Amino acid sequence: MSPDWICSQLGAREHYAIPRALHRAGRLRELHTDLWSAGLWRHARFLGAPGRDLAGRFHPELDRAAVRAHPFTAIPMVGAARLGRAADFAGNVFRQSLRLDRMTADRLRAPGIFFSYTGTFLESAARIQELGGRAILGQVDPAATEEEIVARERERHPGWEPGAVPPPPGWTERRRAEWDRADLVVVNSAWSRTCLEQQGVPPSKLRVVPLAYDPPTETARARVRARGAGVRVLWLGQVILRKGIACLLESARRLSALPVEFVIAGPIGISPAAVAAAPENVRFLGPISRTLVSRVYAGADLFVLPTLSDGFAITQLEAMAHGLPVIATPRCGEVVVPGQSGLIVPPGDAEALAAAIAGLVQNREALAAMALEALERSRHFGLDRLTGALLDLLPE
Known about the structure:
- The protein is of the alpha/beta class.
- It folds into 2 domains: about 220 residues, Rossmann fold, CATH 3.40.50; about 160 residues, Rossmann fold (3-Layer(aba) Sandwich).
């Protein structure tokens, strides 16, 4: 069977999981993207942080795939960053997305199944449909519902995110037009599906396809870390209100009398005052490189993800693959099996989160048993499962 899917994406989203899954099945005709580090560009990691980012725009599984890079879509974005115009980051990404969409649409010549994400979809979808093909949109978040949740959280914690900016002009209208244009809208969790239905997307268009994660071989076979006297709780990801940082800090304050340490790793998006007011049992690491991620996971006993809203949080799968039980909310994908690989708590409920952590701190046998179950659970979200789910979207 000849390849018949065309993918388009900005950046290395999800480590190119969708095109990789289709390429494994021999169904990827081509991938359109902004930057692709083929050849000598793969050695750009030696040029510092920008070089590492550039070198990361590649995946060895796609080395023999037909990849169409459109680097000129990224030049204005890079230039704005160099000039210090970070405040318009969202606007730059939006404009970059539109450029990639136009360039991809101009190069479509035959029918097929087109897949792309929010922002890089609309014109290419219209073109593929003109040619007699189908268009599938990957909606990566719960859209306006999530934006409203974040707005309310910022009102409850004024000054925590002083640099927050609204979506760029035209973004909301573009998103709606993409929903209308798509033959199918793929979301990665039941939470996102519910949110999009509330926003008027027809249920008949919506499909849930969870993200995939293939852990490195050495990680998947890692043994559960020996437990010491104290328990180290890890947060890894953006330190922002949407992810539930205010809830976590309040929970940490409630647990100051227990032998538990909270390690928060990731870019800090809250104010210095909010960081300074954190309880003494909390330690902020700031951003960490991908090369250090495994070490950070290996040094923890428990992973927390008290998110207020996520389409799907891949970090919970990473944590489980390193033998960490996960405490999460119902708004980040159906990964945790409550009572087996972790626990589920209501979003924004600091008392419930503190109680869940305390219960595992005081019951090391349960913590160890969940660690083993978490390791096993992480293996249920491999790339082969994603391949099957994609091909089932439009059966022959």
